[in-house]
Design a protein that fits this description.
Chain lengths: 330, 711
């Protein structure tokens, strides 16, 4: 592997200054993805700035009942936090559905948002990949794409985003906060990940030189009854082949508010806004849930070997929303 | 000089009682050193450069800039590597040329070794290896296995390719029930926890190799032949092995390390990455298997055909003999079996976890389940009605065929009698539930081995044998065998293994290791005890007795010798998500005398877990465009996790091999056989859908649920 320089930052301003907007430098959080990619040569930074010591490891309840989650909070601490479990159970469930206990103890919230796709062509430097080497091509389109995107992809890249956590955060309108040399900024998670288009190597709207400092979740009483369901090829320690974060506010048999996001279907966590529109104001029941899923999945463009994901997401939507409605009725 | 007598009172026999691994403490505390952890002064590190094309020729290698990189000592490729001799037959036949690295400019598969970069540190070697530019002349490749491939041909492996008796078509035509189905299994990789690694060095005219392998004298013999060395000048050691599963023989890394150590005259280590293991250490070929069964109204087989197609490389023959299982398990008036191969531009497959029997039993035992459904006969009853009297193909008598007893005990403990045979009728929440069963068999054999037993004046004993403990607990088992032969407690026995200087012995493979070694250890230790009992002198350096079982093993008459088992599985299937989860599993085995129940149970359970993996998870995705495996790591290649392994039990019935001095048959592979079929049969029972392609993935379950009746 390439030799690299290693520095440790102790405050946010120092970390941003050390990065100096150098494209050859990376922040190191838990390293659960970056270090793997460095070993395989996918990432070859000249310098790492370790941000584990930054004072960004707190979870706080905001005025109004939202949450502010520091960027270096570990996945393990996030999933275990009582306020997370109480206010956004889908978020805790999503985090616990990912990785293993050891990895969750290392992985951080900021790093989780920035983790790279596990597409087998992206992670193998002997293969072409437009995300890794722009313009080299995407072998997944005609190759192994059973776990690739059905929504929002392009001929240039059909990889999916691997995060479970980000799916739940997306459902609840999370906002990403960052710091640059020019001062702080923020991005709604909905705008954080860029459309694939013909630039799959450009993954986020984070400005050059920015350090993610945290994520805020606006108050969302509906989230208190939320749920995350993940489907994978084995019972644990695998990325999703389809997942769903959902919350319903039901009054008098009518859906008043709905939050729905899908995972493992696109290059980003997929907020199902079309489905939410169908749900909102509609009577509860499997027909409504199926119609909502269909409204969202109308845009699906499955590849020859991943069409099953359309059925999977549709079935998951109906099942999970039915469960949520039944629990609300109790 | 002094004389000692063994204790007058004979201690309780050790064989048959549970003992923890003698090296267990060293392993869990990190004191045990694996091959890549043994320190050497002046060690240099080699890194293999693998081809990025699947077929063609090396035009040029730009070695000059690489040689100028920090720490780089040498680059070996086909232009400067020493000549190797490949015209010999080793313990397991002619060598796979994959291990004979850098002999020509041809590239016969993706990931073929084209160069070795040697540097002072592994990081420098890797960085330089990744910087080496290789120019290829690329040719079109073919990596796709089809059963109607024009190059498909029968191939003998360790058994004849084809056996045929009776008129198959006539018997099928006159059968009351016929099953005619095709099954497929994917490319699978061994993936032991410990990657392959070897250090080679010359020490006073002797080649010393510190390795992780399944047979030190085997690997030493291959290296001696490849490098045309005097047999006495090669020593291979392999003290601890973190799993092998058939992949740890002679491979590119040992040969490359020897080349570099010879060229640089200093110790050189070559360790493989997980990704490199996917092209350099062998794998199990995918299979396409057609099974045709014809039965009378009462379920008696009249016709059986099992034809398997697997693939081999274009430069070396290896056949996955999936059709072999039927030659042991079931008889019929018309009985046809055939193992075929298609040579493709892929690495040569090799022995892996019950070669032949693992994929073969999936097809055969799943077809039997389909026949049971057609006949309306309970799957166990159908098998019991078809128990053969003698070897269906060989006509030879069976030595201890305990299939029926396994099924009876298994059925009792699993609660089979209460089973409702109808598929798709049990539901628990979102899960459909089902149970399935399958039979298992694996050859039991013994191979010549030598051992020494030494008595020391302090009352302890040392056993030396070039055995391999690849995680099975062989070292511990041999201590128990020796203890009983010497009539002492096992604490007085030291067992030293994994050193080719101890003399020839069987490899850890073919479920034959412990049996073959035990025979030699029992002979040596037994004779030592007799000599001590006769009052032999015991010099300070100890009294040593040597055994060689070549003659005794060779005297074994021909017979059908096998271990058997009955596998049971209960699964839950969510057809709306495609998730399949095994809920419980039971395997009952008749596998000869069990030496150490603690490690034996562990090994049988391990085999069953691999069966779960085979049924539901394991699959290497070979990319048609590049010819390589996509996702060649443990994130892309799934094996069962703890959460996938539910309530699982392995047990055995009284069984012994009358022709073995200890009564052992061998338990290395039987645990895997039939396990995938039991799971697949349970999935049918849960859902009513036959899944004939492994692994039974969520997308396959979903697609089947959405339309096609059979997947």
């Amino acid at each position: 592997m390439r030799e690299f320089d290693y520095r440790r930052a102790y405050d946010v301003a120092g970390a941003v200054a050390l990065l100096d907007a150098d494209p050859d430098t990376r922040f190191l959080g838990g390293g659960t993805n970056l270090v793997d990619l460095m070993k395989t040569g996918v990432e070859r930074p000249a310098r790492l700035i370790d941000i584990r010591e930054l004072p960004l490891d707190r979870i706080e309840v905001t005025a109004g009942g939202g949450l502010r989650i520091g960027a270096t909070v570990t996945n393990g601490d996030l999933a275990a936090h009582p306020e997370v479990r109480r206010r956004y159970p889908a978020l805790a469930q999503a985090v616990l559905a990912g990785a293993s206990g050891q990895l969750r103890n290392m992985a951080t919230v900021g790093g989780n948002l920035l983790q790279r796709t596990r597409c087998g062509y992206f992670t193998d430097v002997s293969q072409p990949c437009n995300k890794r080497v722009p313009g080299s091509g995407c072998p997944a389109v005609a190759g192994e794409h059973r776990n690739h995107a059905i929504l929002g992809a392009s001929d240039h890249c059909v990889a999916v985003h691997p995060s479970d956590m980000a799916v739940a955060l997306t459902a609840f309108d999370a906002v990403v906060h960052y710091e640059t040399a020019d001062g702080p900024g923020e991005l709604p998670l909905a705008d954080f990940y860029l459309p694939v288009g013909d630039t799959p190597h450009r993954e986020t709207a984070l400005p050059a030189g920015a350090l993610i400092t945290g994520v805020t979740l606006p108050p969302a009483p509906v989230a208190a009854g939320s749920r995350y369901r993940k489907v994978r090829e084995r019972a644990s320690y695998a990325f999703a082949i389809g997942s769903l974060a959902a919350a319903l506010d039901i009054r008098d048999g009518i859906v008043r508010d709905a939050r729905l996001a899908f995972g493992a279907v696109a290059s980003r966590p997929w907020r199902a806004t079309a489905a939410e529109r169908v749900l909102t104001g509609a009577p509860t029941g499997p027909e409504t849930y199926a119609a909502a899923a269909d409204a969202e999945l109308a845009a699906a463009r499955p590849l020859p070997r991943n069409g099953y994901k359309v059925d999977l997401i549709r079935n998951l939507t109906v099942t999970v929303l039915t469960e949520l409605a039944e629990e609300a009725a109790r | 000089m002094s004389t000692v007598t063994t204790t007058t009172s004979v201690p309780t026999p050790s064989v048959g009682t549970g003992h923890t691994r003698v090296e267990g403490r060293d392993k869990v505390t990190g004191a045990a050193r694996y091959a890549a952890e043994v320190p050497f002064a002046g060690l240099a590190h080699g890194w293999l450069v693998l081809s990025t094309i699947a077929r063609g020729r090396i035009r040029a290698l730009d070695t000059e800039p690489v040689l100028a990189m920090p720490g780089v000592l040498a680059v070996l490729d086909h232009r400067n590597a020493p000549h190797l001799n490949t015209d010999y037959a080793g313990l397991l036949g002619k060598p796979d040329p994959t291990c004979a690295v850098f002999q020509h400019d041809r590239v016969p598969h993706f990931g073929w070794p084209v160069a070795l970069v040697v540097a002072e540190t592994p990081e420098q070697a890797r960085e330089a290896a990744e910087a080496l530019v290789v120019h290829y002349e690329e040719e079109p490749h073919d990596v796709e296995l089809t059963s109607d491939h024009p190059d498909c041909r029968p191939l003998d492996g360790h058994m004849p390719a084809v056996t045929e008796k009776g008129d198959l078509d006539a018997r099928l035509a006159s059968s009351a029930f016929v099953v005619d189905v095709e099954y497929s299994t994917p490319e699978e990789h061994h993936n032991p926890m410990e990657p392959h690694a070897a250090t080679a060095r010359w020490d006073d005219g002797r080649l010393e190799v510190t390795d992780s392998n399944q047979g030190v004298t085997w690997v030493a013999g291959e290296l001696q032949n490849l490098f045309s060395l005097d047999p006495a000048s090669v020593r291979v050691r392999s003290e601890h092995v973190g799993g092998g599963f058939g992949s740890k023989g002679v491979r590119a890394h040992q040969v490359a390390a020897v080349m570099a150590a010879t060229m640089l005259q200093r110790p050189v280590r070559v360790a493989l990455t997980r990704r490199q293991m996917f092209t350099l250490t062998g794998h199990r070929s995918p299979t396409i298997q057609r099974v045709r069964l014809g039965a009378d109204a009462d379920g008696r087989l009249r016709a059986l055909e099992h034809r398997s197609v697997s693939r081999t490389s274009t430069f070396h023959d290896f056949v996955e003999p999936s059709a072999g299982a039927a030659r042991v398990m079931y008889d019929a008036d018309a009985h046809h079996t055939a193992n075929n191969v298609v040579p493709l531009d892929v690495p040569t497959p090799t022995w892996m976890r019950a070669p032949g029997e693992a994929p073969g039993s999936f097809a055969l035992e799943a077809a039997f389940d389909e026949l049971a459904e057609k006949c309306g006969i309970d799957p166990i009853e159908l098998r019991l009605r078809n128990e053969p009297e003698a070897g269906p193909v060989s006509g030879l008598p069976f030595v201890g065929r305990n299939v029926a007893a396994c099924f009876r005990e298994g059925a009792r403990r699993f609660g089979w009698a209460d089973r409702d045979s109808r598929p798709g009728v049990r539901r628990e929440g979102r899960w459909l539930l089902g149970t399935g069963t399958a039979a298992a068999s694996f050859p039991a054999g013994s191979a010549p081995s030598t051992a020494t037993a030494t008595a020391h004046p302090d009352g302890t004993f040392t056993i030396r044998i070039s055995a391999a403990d690849i995680g099975t607990g062989a070292r511990t088992a041999l201590a128990l065998i020796a203890a009983d032969a010497l009539q002492v407690s096992p604490e007085r026995i030291r067992v030293r293994i994994g050193d080719s200087d101890f003399g020839p012995a069987m490899i850890a493979g073919g479920s034959m290791g412990t049996r073959s070694w035990s025979w030699a250890v029992k002979e040596a230790a037994g004779e030592l005890r007799e000599r001590l009992a006769l009052g032999a002198d015991l010099p300070a350096q100890g009294l040593t007795v040597r055994s060689d079982t070549t003659e005794a093993v060779g005297a074994l008459g021909p017979a059908e010798r096998h271990s058997y088992g009955a596998q049971f599985a209960e699964v839950a299937v969510d057809v709306t998500t495609g998730e399949v989860r095994v809920r419980r599993m039971l395997g009952i085995f008749a596998a000869g005398r069990i030496v150490n129940p603690l490690t034996a149970r562990n090994q049988l359970l391990g085999g069953m877990v691999w069966g779960i993996s085979m049924a539901l998870h394991e699959e290497a995705a070979r990319d048609r465009a590049s010819g390589g495996v996509v996702g060649a790591d443990l994130a892309g290649y799934h094996v069962a996790t703890h959460a996938d392994v539910p309530r699982i039990e392995a047990d055995w019935i009284e069984d012994t091999d009358p022709d073995d001095p200890v009564g052992i048959k061998g338990i290395g592979e039987i645990g895997t056989v039939g396990a995938a079929a039991a799971v697949a049969n349970a999935v049918w029972h849960a859902t009513g859908v036959r899944h004939r392609s492994l692994p039974i993935r969520p997308d396959r379950v979903l697609t089947a649920a959405a339309g096609a009746p059979d997947a």
